Amino acid sequence: MPAHLATLDRTQTAAVLPYPALVKALIHAAQEKAQGKISTPARQALAFPAGGTLLSMPATAQDIGVHKLVNVMPHNAAQGEPVIQGLVCAYDGHTGAPLFVLDGPTVTERRTAALSMMGIELLWQQPKHVTLIGSGVQAYGHAEALLTLYPQATISLLARQPHNAQKLIERLGSPHTLQAVQAVPSDSDVVITVTSSSKPVYSETALLDRLVIAVGAYTPDMAEIHPATVQGSDIFVDNSDAARQEAGDLIQARVNWAAVQPLYNDESHRKHQRPLLYKTIGCAAWDLAAARCARAQRELLL
After folding, report:
1. Span 57-111, pLDDT tens digits
2. 3-state secondary structure 79-91
3. By C-alpha distance, which of 226, 188, 229, 211 is closest to 278?
4. Which residue of 16, 27, 240, 279 is surrounded by the most CB atoms within 10 Å?
5. Could you tell me the pTM of the whole model?
6. pLDDT at residue 3 in the model
7. Neighbours of 207 (CB within 10 A)
8. Could you tell me if 205 and 230 are in contact, meaning their C-beta atoms sit under 8 angstroms apart?
9. For residue 125, what are the CA distances in angstroms to 16, 155, 189, 263, 297?
10. Which homologous superfamily is 6-107+285-301 in?
11. Strands 211-214 and 190-193: what pairing?
12. pLDDT per residue over 113-128, tens digit each?
C-alpha cells in the first residue's frame, strides 16, 4: 500500500466528479456492462447488532476495480449525524495497487443524479422544463446536476412540505430558473421522483411528451410511481438484475419483465412510440465509473 494513500473528503470528492465528465463515464460504463466487460456481483448486506446495515459493493473492469463500503444508520438522524456513512476504495486494474479513497455518500449522491442525467441524455436529450418531486439529498444533487448540464431549462421543485422546496432553492443560490410548485406543471417534459415514499407520489397518466425518471424506491415495498403510469409506459432500467428484486415501482405494477429494457447508448431508444419510464436502482458498476472519472480528473490536476 502506498505510504500516503490519497483520501478525499466530501468537497474533494465532489471536485473530481464534475457532472459532464461523470455522465460520460456512466454512459461508457453502461455500454461495457451490457457487453459483460464489468463484473458486479450482487450487493451484500450485513446488519449491525446495534441497528443499521453495512453494504458491500465491489466491481472490476480491465483498468480499475472498486469496493464501496457504505453503512446505512437510520438512528443517526436523531443525533444530528449523517444517516449514510462510508467510502469507495479504487484500485489499479493491472497491479491491484490502491489508488485513492473517495467519500462514499458523495459518490452515491453524485452518481445517482448523473444516472438520471444519463437517462435524459440517452432517451430525451434537451429538457425544457424538469419537475423534481422531493426535497432531500437527492433532490439537491439532481437540481445541481440539472443546473450544470441544462442551464436553460426551467426546474420546478415539488415537496410535500412547500417550505422545504424553498429552503432547497435558497441553498442552491436561488437561481432564476428554479421555482417551488404545488403540483406538476403541465408543460413539464421531464419528471424525476427522488423521495423515500412507500406510496406513489406521481399518479398522472403516462404521456408521450414526458419522460418520467423514478429514483427513490429501492425495496419491493416502496413505490413512487402509480402502477397505471408504469403499465402505460415503455420501461428502461439501469440494472436489470437488481430491478427484479428491488424496483418496487415495477414489482408492484406487475410489469412484463421481458419488455423491460436495460439502458445504454443505443439510438433506437430515442425512437419511442409510447411514453417512457426510466427506473434507476444503482449498482457498483456506477461507482466504478465514478472512480474512473475521479482518476482522470486527478491526473489532469497533477
Report:
1. 999 999 999 999 999 888 888 888 888 899 999 999 999 999 999 999 999 999 9
2. HCCCCEEEEEEEE
3. 211
4. 279
5. 0.93
6. 67
7. 17
8. no
9. 24, 16, 11, 14, 25
10. ornithine cyclodeaminase, domain 1 (3.30.1780.10)
11. parallel
12. 999 999 999 999 899 9
The Cα 145–Cα 134 span in angstroms is 15
Model confidence pLDDT, tens digit, residues 266-277? 665 667 889 999
Q: What is the C-alpha to C-alpha distance for residues 6 and 267, in angstroms, rounded to an integer?
A: 39
User: Whose grid coordinates read 439502458?
Assistant: 263
- Give the contacts of 8 (CB within 8 A, at least 6 positions apart): 16, 100, 101, 102, 103, 294
98 Rama class: left (phi>0) / alpha (psi -120 to 50) / beta: beta
Q: Residue 126 is inside which H or E element, if any? A: none
How many residues are given for the chain? 302
Fold of 125-282: Rossmann fold (3.40.50)
The C-alpha cell that represents 236 in the structure block: 428502461
